[in-house]
Design goal:
Strand content of chain A: 25-35%
Structural class of chain A: alpha+beta
CATH architecture of the largest domain in chain A: 2-Layer Sandwich
CATH class of the largest domain in chain A: Alpha Beta
Radius of gyration of chain A: 25 Å
Number of domains of chain A: 3
Mean pLDDT of chain A: 95
Distance between the termini of chain A: 30 Å
Number of strands of chain A: 25
Oligomer: homodimer
CATH topology of the largest domain in chain A: BirA Bifunctional Protein, domain 2
Low-confidence stretches of chain A: none
Largest sheet of chain A: 11 strands, mixed
Chain lengths: ~475, ~475
């Protein structure tokens, strides 16, 4: 890190540039040499590791087991499920040789691994006794992207992909919904992103799925971002890959499967929801450093007090004393730009009065706190901090949630405000393609908990019994 | 898992077939559809996760930070370091197109990531203040292999690759050695593989390194296996990629770098060292289940007692009650084949006398234990178990460590016995290539702690001041 912190474009001036500035200046990533790839730097990766930890521990409650499936998929396998290959073929990276030697068959780098899992399931599943299989892997996947942006859209990204196979439709469907609930829980409670849950329309469904469920959140600029999807695959893959089992009735049946994933896109969602003109703002649960102790001026006493505070807080929090040889001011700015929830300034003069100064990243409030109350104050402050950033995000979404009943109204809302727009919609593929062509927007979901009463489709005017959120999205 | 456990070939009859049988029947892996790839199943992956955990926590002591660098390396970058490209070019998987679209420049799938890290370091390192950078990543890498075997040699494998850059030669060298010590510690203390540490000869050095250090272990059949390597890269990569910093003297200097790695090969080493004719034998620290509770015959009382034991032991151990509907005998065999260190049989008759039967996987001893002593007994048993399997491995190595002073003696030892053979060696590239051609064996290392006195090279007869272990190896 250079000794000079760079300026961040104002969020209100140019949201896209602000985003890139925050991502780069907070030390999360750098660009990789191959087009559309990124290097996740230590600070960024530490956040990702914390995110992984929360999901993994929730997955365990549903008996999810971690596995590793190969990166490369022989072309012949990939071509078995028609919708799936159509969806992914144009963007798959293809290996055609090893060294100078041309391969007999092309190998695709996984854009997702349904076909690998389906092939495996078809080999090992013989009886209802072998079911369910509930697998997950944390891996890299690649998809060629024309325009890329760190975390949001990159040619390579990291994700978890869950793949399960079940005896009954109901069981597979329940799995799909249980995972959606895991996603909702972790994303709203740990990442502090208020999300809407719902089902995708046919147009936005995963290639090869019978139903796709989603959690959707709204960024500060009013554009939506899909934060995680859980797919009920019915027996589409079981048919294409012959995943059959002998049931309790001794007959052979096709199995039912699911798949689901969240990715490093979540990092983008966190940034675009919580951060501000001073840089990153991180929910405490995923902040690699929750409390940074910064020394105003080194003396033996100051060092000793700082170390004592560190020790005391480190039972509960990830705490660090910044021991670099940078100036006090630089350290304060750096901690701010990196979104560290709480900073504690320890200085010789304050120490004489047995106090330190604690500041919150979100409100920038500074509080003088007696030494003996530091732990209590930090606990309260972090709790308030988390509540506040969640509520600000929720408020933003509420302010930016609209209804429209005609395409004109819809376009007016979009042009004026940006946000989720609830519309009556016929749900048809062709109508949605038409809307997308006209407005460059897509449906986000058929939301849970919204009355799906009858009406007329806001675009084609046909009879409709769906209420759907449409939005501009990342 | 099928209801029938398959037979395992006797280790003494056919070591290679025994190995494959153990790997497959214990449920560690299956084969992937692309040539030379493997699927790491839940049981295998759980072991790998534990291995990762131990290394990661040791790395942290040396301020190693985890990162993620892209999978793909543009061909032009890869060609910058001459030795490195020569070493890896013939085996790199090459992406030439995305969908139907031919790429302008070939992209290599990383066989290792030195060039990516070096490119990054050259961009961000400007001043001595930016140093050191101590990075690690846990990722997949690919290398085309002609003959493959699960874990030991696969076209894709998982590993950690550390990459560091330093101000001084001494600091980089110390890093290299510190990591070697981490490797020795984790591999000997957690994986219970007795290892020899030492330096590689010029012939066996990593492509692009100035010195390669290694930990080597000996498998049950007397063949050696390299378990981890730590490379001092000098400023080879700094020169090729222009990693320069402004020093404390205000002049520009080339930086010094290191790289180091351990991989899923370690899983192969564990199997070939500890396992036996009944299947896998796992050191307790990496056993996903350390204690399996198996119910002889279900009654309310038995279930209750089993649950109590599980609860009690789960404070200290990874414990599981096998609740599947398989037979008692099947469950016992399965726990054995999977290498679970300790099994506890809970049955109604034993319970009447307030006892359970505990059995050890290594010695197959069964002990009747009073309910109140279960925890104590398990603790002692696991401690004895770990000691025993380490000592058996150590004994095997000691029995298979030889000396030779001529090529004839060397070949005689190899033909008769297999093992590490300590020989006086000139150290020259051409001489070692000659030995390899004649014997299909390679040098393993110039061992630490062995007196490097003068002598005559066992092959060419030239003056030599090295004592080197040669062996057949995996």
């Amino acid at each position: 890190m250079a000794q000079q912190l760079k300026n961040i474009t104002k969020r209100s001036e140019d949201f896209a540039k602000w985003y890139t500035d925050v991502v780069k200046n907070s030390g999360l990533i750098d660009y990789g040499p191959a087009k559309g790839t990124m290097i996740i730097k230590p600070y960024g990766f530490a956040i990702w590791e914390l995110i992984q930890k929360y999901f993994d521990s929730e997955f365990k409650k549903y008996e999810v087991e971690n596995v590793y499936f190969p990166l490369l998929i022989p072309a012949s396998l990939f071509n078995k499920e028609k919708d799936h290959i159509e969806g992914f073929a144009p963007e798959t990276f293809t290996v055609t040789k090893i060294g100078d030697k041309q391969l007999e068959e092309d190998l695709y780098i996984r854009p997702t691994s349904e076909v690998l899992l389906a092939t495996y399931f078809s080999k090992v599943v013989k009886s209802y006794r072998d079911l369910p299989l509930i697998y997950n892997q944390w891996v890299n996947v690649l998809r060629g992207e024309k325009t890329t942006r760190p975390f949001l859209r990159t040619s390579e990204f990291l994700w978890q992909e869950g793949h399960t196979v079940h005896e009954t439709k109901d069981e597979a469907f329940l799995m799909t919904k249980n995972i959606l609930e895991v996603y909702r829980k972790v994303v709203s409670e740990k990442l502090l992103l208020p999300v809407i849950t719902g089902e995708k329309t046919v147009h936005e469904r995963f290639a090869g799925a019978e139903a796709t469920f989603t959690i959707e959140s709204l960024m500060h600029d009013g554009q939506a971002l899909q934060c995680g999807t859980s797919h009920y695959l019915g027996n589409n893959f079981a048919k294409a890959f012959e995943i059959k089992y002998q049931g309790r009735d001794s007959n052979w049946h096709e199995a039912f499967s699911t798949s689901w994933g969240v990715s490093t896109r979540l990092m983008g969602a966190i940034i675009m929801t919580h951060s501000d003109d001073s840089g990153l703002v991180l929910p405490s649960s995923i902040a690699p450093i929750e409390v940074q102790i910064i020394i105003v001026k080194e003396t033996d006493e100051v060092n000793k007090a700082a170390e004592e505070i560190r020790k005391q807080l480190s039972h509960t929090y990830r705490v660090k004393i910044d021991k670099s040889d940078k100036s006090f001011g630089f350290k304060m700015s750096e901690a701010e730009i990196k979104g560290i929830p709480v900073r504690i300034e320890v200085g010789p003069r304050d120490l004489e009065s047995k106090i330190v100064v604690i500041s919150r990243r979100d409100t920038k409030e500074k509080t003088q706190v007696e030494l003996k109350n530091v732990e209590k104050q930090v606990r309260e402050m972090i709790s308030e901090y988390d509540k506040n950033i969640y509520n600000m995000a929720l408020q933003n979404r509420q302010m930016r949630t609209f209804e429209a009943s005609s395409l004109k109204e819809y376009i007016d809302v979009l042009n004026e405000k940006q946000g989720f727009v609830l519309v009556p919609f016929c749900g048809e593929m062709s109508c949605e393609a038409d809307i997308k062509a006209k407005t460059q927007t897509t449906s986000r979901c058929i939301p849970d908990g919204v009355d799906q009463s009858k009406g007329k489709c806001f675009n084609c005017g046909k009879e409709s019994n769906l209420k759907v959120y449409f939005a501009r999205s990342y």
